[in-house]
Design a protein that fits this description.
mainly beta; binds zinc ion; two-stranded antiparallel ribbon; single chain
C-alpha cells in the first residue's frame, strides 16, 4: 500500500481521493533519507544546491478536502497535464 502511494509523487502519477474526488490537495507524511550538497560561503551563508533522495517511505496521504486518509489511491496523471 505505501509503496503504491509513493508513485503518486512521481511524474506520471497523481493522488485521487475516492471520498470526495479531490486530485489536487493532500498532506503527505513521509520519512526521507537524503544526500544534500550544502554550500557554505565564508561569510556564513549557506544553501542546499543539490538534493538526492536515497530512500523514501510514505507513511500517510490525507485528503485536504475531506480529511480521509483511507480513501486515497494513485492513478495515472492525464497526459499533457
Ligand atoms: Zn477527500
Amino acid at each position: 500500500m505505501t509503496d503504491d502511494l509513493a508513485r503518486g509523487l512521481e511524474a506520471g502519477g497523481r493522488f485521487r481521493c475516492d471520498g470526495c474526488g479531490n486530485v489536487t490537495r493532500f498532506d503527505v507524511v513521509a520519512t526521507t533519507r537524503t544526500r544534500r550538497f550544502h554550500h557554505f560561503d565564508l561569510g556564513g551563508d549557506r544553501r542546499v544546491e543539490e538534493e538526492e533522495i536515497l530512500e523514501q517511505t510514505i507513511e500517510s496521504v490525507t485528503c485536504r478536502w475531506c480529511g480521509r486518509a483511507d480513501a486515497v489511491h494513485v492513478e495515472s496523471a492525464p497526459a499533457g497535464a
